[in-house]
Amino acid sequence: MNAPVTLTATATPSTPALLLRPWRAADVTALIEVYQDPDLRRWTVSPLDGADDGLRWVRAQEQGWATGDRFAFAVLEAAGDAVPPRLVGNVVLKEVAPGRPCAQVGYWTAAQARGRGVASRALDTLTAWSLDAFRADGLEYLELLHQVDNVASCRVAEKSGYRLDSVLPPAPPAYPLDGHLHIRRA
Ligand SMILES: CC(C)(COP(=O)(O)OP(=O)(O)OC[C@H]1O[C@@H](n2cnc3c(N)ncnc32)[C@H](O)[C@@H]1OP(=O)(O)O)[C@@H](O)C(=O)NCCC(=O)NCCS
Question: What range(s) does the N-acetyltransferase domain occupy (predicted)?
Answer without folding.
Answer: 18-182
